[in-house]
Design a protein that fits this description.
This protein has strands spanning 2-3, 6-12, 18-25, 28-34, 40-46, 48-54, 60-66, 71-79, 85-92, 99-106, 112-118, 124-131, 137-143, 152-158, 164-170, 180-185, 191-195, 200-203, 209-213, 219-224, 230-234, 237-241, 250-255, 270-275, 281-292, 300-314, 319-323, 334-343, 346-347, 353-354, 373-377, 379-380, 383-387, 397-402, 407-412, 418-422, 429-436, 441-448. By secondary structure, the protein is mainly β. The protein is elongated, with a radius of gyration of 32 Å.
């Protein structure tokens, strides 16, 4: 919704195709809700707290700015049953020296009916508001007043006139700066809170904590789903939990070591997965093996192996070895294995495991003497190799592999040295030219272009 030039509002169809877009210059947007007439209501800042009403096409119908000499900013707005609006944000010092939670009630035209301030001697901020079934409001924000350490989650319950009925603050032992970002009334009459940092808190109707979960970072919005669980937007991730706030937490804890894999040997690829959560999960496990540049192992030459296995059931706290399809490691070189788990088709953000093990296959029969050569032309429509005279017997050929590790050609070495041009009849791409000797092997990467 926001942009560097003002508020940017985009309407899309169900497939994400843009239907229209509007930019409102000189304003900053924080929250938007569709209204009963099909239009939209936006809150944010235009010097002070902003309320902007549009029609269904995003054309401005009216806007209001609320505030005095202090700084005011809106963070959440909701249309109320009388077609008016309830807005929360803060009122205070722009530099954060002090702030109070600000609650405003307006009529359908944005004219102020009443305002309330909540806070103490330090900075306190309001981020989210929702009407409750008793006609009052529940506010979620952050608290630093009244002697608390760092930021606390702060929940404020009011009556229909904004008068405080009770407040609760929550300080968890998982680090500092715990403050709220969203609150919803739950099916049992209690509340569910998503914090800015790593907190999900479930309370009863009086705001007393029933349970907390601390696995979700940067939670922004949440809703309760029909099955009693919750859907949470956090950063670039979307999380689905059960009614107890538990999510599938399945990760890879161990993958194969590739240190002893032999060239051309069939290997049973496997990884160990563990369910760190409380609920039984079905998921996909995926394994990827990449072939690496011998001179620069951090560079992936190509992905040579990819397999996905469906695990239909793994109980909470259980581990299992997942067998993937076999792989024969067709050429000597460096391989990296990576394994991960996926829930509902998405990679698990918690317990991905990337193996840094490197596997270098054993040599085949040693070559009597390694030919001496240099690559004269490494990039071009043809590759030029220059072989020197040898003082003793040489092997008869040099192997050429493509980027997948497949042997594509064998270059015959001239007995008395000389120049060889290679590449005619082969497609453009990366190739590896390799010569093995008694005590060493030499590999050169070349690139064919046409």
């Amino acid at each position: 919704m926001g942009s560097k030039d003002g508020i940017w509002l985009v309407k899309s169809d169900s497939n994400g195709n843009t239907m229209w877009e509007r930019t409102y210059q000189g304003r900053a947007g924080e929250y938007i809700q569709q209204t009963n007439d099909g239009g939209y209501i936006v809150t944010g800042e235009k010097g002070h707290l902003l309320l902007l009403k549009t029609d269904a096409e995003g054309n401005i119908l009216w806007e209001r700015v609320y505030g005095d000499s202090s700084w005011h900013r809106g963070f959440c707005v909701e249309q109320t049953t009388d077609n008016g609006y309830i807005i929360t944000g803060w009122n205070g010092d722009r530099d954060g020296g002090w702030r109070d939670v600000w609650l405003l009630k307006t009529d359908a035209n944005g004219d102020t009916l009443w305002t309330k301030l909540y806070g103490g001697e330090s900075s306190d901020e309001g981020y989210f508001v929702q009407a409750t079934i008793d006609g009052g409001y529940i506010i979620h924000g952050g608290l630093t007043s009244f002697g608390v350490d760092n930021w606390n989650d702060w929940l404020i319950k009011t009556n229909s006139n904004g008068d405080t009925l009770w407040t609760r603050n929550y300080q968890l032992n998982i680090g500092s700066n715990i403050r709220g970002n969203c609150v919803r009334v739950t099916q049992d009459g209690g509340y569910i809170i998503a914090g800015i940092t790593t907190t999900l808190i479930k309370t009863d109707k009086n705001g007393d904590s029933l349970w907390t979960r601390d696995y979700i970072a940067n939670s922004r919005r949440l809703e309760q789903t029909h099955d009693g669980g919750y859907i949470i937007a956090a950063g670039n991730w979307l999380y689905k939990t059960d009614v107890n706030g538990d999510i599938g937490d399945v990760g890879v804890t161990e993958v194969d070591s590739l240190e002893d894999i032999n060239y051309g040997e069939i290997h049973s690829v496997k990884a160990t997965v563990e369910n760190f959560g409380r609920t039984t999960e079905a998921f996909h496990a995926r394994c990827i093996i990449t072939f690496r540049d011998l001179d620069a192992p951090e560079i992936r030459v190509d992905t040579v192996y990819w397999d996905t296995i469906f695990v239909d059931s793994l109980g909470g706290g259980q581990t299992r070895v997942v067998p993937f399809k076999d792989y024969d490691f067709p050429q000597k070189g460096l391989y990296w294995m990576y394994a991960t788990t996926m829930l509902d088709g998405d990679a698990n953000p918690y317990n991905d495991y990337a193996s840094s093990y490197m596997g270098e296959g054993i040599e085949e029969q040693p070559i009597t003497q390694q030919p001496t050569f240099e690559v004269v032309t490494a990039v071009g429509s043809n590759i030029v190799l220059q072989f020197a005279d040898a003082s003793g017997p040489q092997s008869g050929c040099v192997a050429v592999y493509d980027a997948t590790g497949r042997l594509v050609d064998e270059i015959r070495v001239p007995a008395q040295g000389g120049t060889i041009t290679w590449g005619e009849g082969y497609g453009p791409g990366v190739y590896f030219i390799r010569i093995e000797g008694d005590a060493s092997a030499t590999t050169h990467k070349v690139i064919l272009i046409h």
